[in-house]
Fold these 4 entries.
Entry 1:
Amino acid sequence: MLSHGGQVVVGLSGGADSVCLLIVLLRLGYEVEAVHVNHMIRGAEADRDESFVRRLSEKLGIKLTVIKKDVPKLAKEMHMSEEEAGRYIRYEAFKEKAEYLSRKSASEEGTDGADGAGSVKIAVAHNKNDLAETVIYNMVRGSSLQGLAGIRPVRDRIIRPLLMTKRSDIERYLNEIGQDYITDSTNLETDYSRNKIRHQVLPVLEELNDGAVDHLAAIAMDALQLREDMDNKLSFSDGAEYNPETEDGYVGKIDIDYMNSLDTLTRGELVLRVMESVAGRRKDLTREHVRSVISLSELESGKKIVLPYEMVAERVYGEIRIYKSGKKSNDGASEHFSEMDIGRIETVSYDYTSEIDLSKKEYTKLIDCDKIKSALCLRTPKPGDFIVINAEGGSKKLSRYFTEAKIERSERAYVPVVADGDEVVWIVGHRLSERYKVSPATEKVTEIRYIKEK
């Protein structure tokens, strides 16, 4: 993580983890500077934290930079949660300090800074409990393998020297050397998801097995190794373009033969990376979305599905192309997918219990997950469409259904339907196919939510 005697910026909150990290790095002989960010969220308590780290830095004889940022205000401006905004601001402050020290070091050494631009590391104090909590949090959110890997020990210039050290050992060490620290009151609350895991879920797991934290951390390291193996495979591939910028924006392309040659996990990671390159983020891209994109390889050219962040995935001969709706699909034709006019759908799958009842919700429906044949997509009606209307499998053409429902001919072409391949699953706002309905034998359901574009 660090070369002997190297420079390092420590993110210092004043809590046990960051205080321990600071003292350990100093005792190991590293050249340390600290950065503290006052988020201006907790009023007098935030000022108390700032005063504590100032006294500690003075006592230890290190330089301290204090940054004050109105996180609640910035969170609203950036359309983020306060947690997300706070994290962004902290890491920007750490990065700015590290870059300044790198330039200063390069100047003193008489170099142009090219070799030492990333030489000053940023040390943050995540511990083994944080790693275990992150693994649990990502698992219940339906994360990919990357989420199961949790927190990386090293990422670019950011290092986490205490990542494999338990919180209890950190606190015990500080008590042994007589070093005090502060406790953020929000860490004791159960309002935040991570705090619920910290104070409610992990203690129960440790009752079942006192090695729960160690085992979760070991799983994370195994997942990280798999992730690195996938990185090595994909970094040398020519079977996908992650960020080919066209005049209309980002269009990701995946060669179907190449994709199908990969093992299952690497195939999913490839699809996730391409979706991420188009969307600009990975959050809310789930394995259901990955599965739907991969299923396009089994459909004929021209088939499309709707994805989050206004994305569309389309089978185009030997490729799957992922692009923002309304963009060109690299074949010269301007794409105006029906999502632009009729809205979009969001799907999530979970285990079914009889207590779940969405029957009275007009624009949210449950279907039996195991009955999906290929991939759900939102589109407008096309000739020959039908919907199953009874348990025996009897069907009715949409044209006849529209007539009986007294839907004007001029409006029928714009009625949104959710389809599974060529079969209509749901005439949005009207009828759900009997074939896909939930039954007492259903084990897993897919919830479909229709969102009308404004």
Entry 2:
Amino acid sequence: MNTYCSYKKILEHIELIQEGDIVYVISDIFQLAKTAMENNEEFDLNIFLDTITAKVGKSGTVLVPTFNWDFCKEKTFDYDKTPSMTGALGNAALRKRDFARTKHPIYSFCVWGQDRDLLFEMDPKNSFGKGTIFEYLVERSAKAFVIDLPSMEGISVNHHIEQMVGVPYRFEKTFTAGYIDWNREEKVKSYSMYVRDYDYDAEEHLDPMNHVLECLNISNTTIINDIPFRVVRLKEMAQILEYDYRYNDARNTYRFKGQKKPKILTEKYVW
């Protein structure tokens, strides 16, 4: 018996995404598209984006990452032409008129819905700290909708918490390059990022934190067509991350030179 669910109806089965939600979409859509084609259904990225915006409604907001790190290599950022390096869904959102791209040349988002204009007006010169969209996602209790990836893969909210705490293996670095804005005016602008300090040999090790988030029901998974669709509550995730960075020397998220033993061992948070 064929139990295939059309990709156009997947959001009908994601009960934790509701009308009025702020939803940050992180995706690997390869398997989603492949499964649709195997079931004689043409996969359309625009239609899939429309199913997400329809689920949250006009009172909700949808954000799709359109990150591009070429600015860090002194390459000009073109607001209209610089593509997303974070997947096909971001590039599809860039082509949709009802989405607007935010201004940051490294960590931009395409945004639809209630807070589209609010987020477009934001122009922080740092990437993860105060006044950034990552702070907005935490403070406004946004939900990450993670398609066919582990819970924390690509969310980047962890870097916001790292900067707020001041982890030892990162530091603030400023990058300067050309910037062509939405009015086609070209300038030279500077933005900073909380980058990795290579003296610490820091490497992400996210499996323990993924496990923590799932055990605490902060990340909830729905399997559809053998593909995991996860909904992660970002404010609660940020609280767990802050605990890990402040009291557990980031042992659930990173491995780095000189890492200390946990100062506090609490079974609720430390595995």
Entry 3:
Amino acid sequence: MQKKMSKIPFNGTPEQKAQLMAVIDEHKADKSTLMAVMQKAQDIYGYLPLEVQEMIAEGMDVPLEKVFGVATFYAQFSLSPKGDYNISVCMGTACYVKGAQALIDELQNELNIGVGECTEDGKFSIEACRCIGACGLGPVLTVNEEVYGKLTKKDVAGIVEKYTA
């Protein structure tokens, strides 16, 4: 699944930038620590927007293309912020054959965002994940840590509504 850059404007704080620069300063002599720096940057910002990737590339003296390549190759990195309510739909085999794609389609229609994106108000994000180990409840989605199972696309609006109230 291709990762998408966020449509939400970047608004990092000076404190976050100072934290990132301290991490970069600590590691810039060893380019093999690029991934560790990126992980810490994601911990600081919650995701890796282009502006943060540029700071890492410049500070570590590596091409931006390399930072972007790592960010898009590894599933642990996100190019978009997570919403207050991160909705994750299990796409493991059991959930997929029981209709998980219909849940994703309905979520995208309901929230007007795609997989890997966040609503402009920062409230919701959608992602597809691998098996979460609740195969008997498939198809399954989680909202943060709360699990919902045996769903149909008709259940999606009610779940979203619960978090907008």
Entry 4:
Amino acid sequence: MNTVQSPRVSEFESDEKEASYTAWLKQKIDRARTSSKALVPHDQVMAQAREVIVAKRKKHVAG
């Protein structure tokens, strides 16, 4: 079911939890921007994700 949420209503329980999440997210983004790790092309990530999905489906069907 798709539930449409008002953009004016926060999904966080409190302002403090929203601020904590926002700080965590900004820190994570900053670390990613300054990382020296090699970038993985989008197509490669999507191919790997598809492989994981297929394997999970096969495992689920097999029981």
